[in-house]
Amino acid sequence: MPFRDSDTEEISDEQITEDEPSSSVEDISQKSAQIAIVTAFECSSLQNLSVKAHLIPIAKQLGVRYRSKGKRDLLTPIAKQLFLQGYLESEADPINFKKLKRCELKVIRPIFQDSSIDSNSEGSPTTDHD
């Protein structure tokens, strides 16, 4: 193999765009989506949320396709819709959807008031039965 000098290596367009901030919700990263979901559910960790009890009901409410998707696959589309439908907004100026911070996010409309999902310290859902 030939020796490559690190100073002469070309940087691809993909590497450049990964580091640049983005103000478009379409460019939200997986990590930022995770932070947005945890903030919206007001829980401490993604481990406190289950697909069946938490993510699928919210996906239905937001109009996100959820069939045959796991927890990590649902994060990005749900997070995008939380921003687009006005549940979350960022207080950062300018916003960078590739590197969101939990302290910069603000819950505008609680996701729990629109559905039968409720937040509690254990992260388990509760339903109202009359």
Structural class: mainly alpha
Rounded to the nearest angstrom, the distance between the terminal CA atoms is 73 Å
Which band does the percent of strand residues land in?
under 5%
Low-confidence stretches: 114-130
- The averaged pLDDT comes out at 79
Number of alpha- plus pi-helical segments: 4
Number of strands: 2
Strand order of the largest sheet: 1-2
Helical content class:
25-40%
Characterize the biggest β-sheet: 2 strands, antiparallel
Rg over alpha carbons: 18 Å
Could you say which overall geometry the principal axes of the C-alpha atoms support? globular
Succession of helices and strands: HHHHEE
Please sum up the structure shown.
The chain contains four helices and two strands. The protein has 130 residues and is mainly alpha-helical. The longest helix is centred in the middle third of the chain and has 14 residues, at 71-84.
Protein described:
Mean pLDDT is 79; it is low at 114-130. Helix content is 34%, strand content 5%. The protein has a domain at 23-107. It has helices at 13-19, 30-40, 51-62, 71-84; strands at residues 88-90, 105-107. It is mainly alpha-helical. The protein has a two-stranded antiparallel ribbon.
Topology readout:
Elements: H1 13-19, H2 30-40, H3 51-62, H4 71-84, E1 88-90, E2 105-107
Antiparallel strand pairs: 1-2
Helix pairs in contact: 2-4, 3-4
Properties at a glance:
two-stranded antiparallel ribbon, 2 strands, disordered C terminus, 5% strand, 130 residues, single chain, mainly alpha, globular
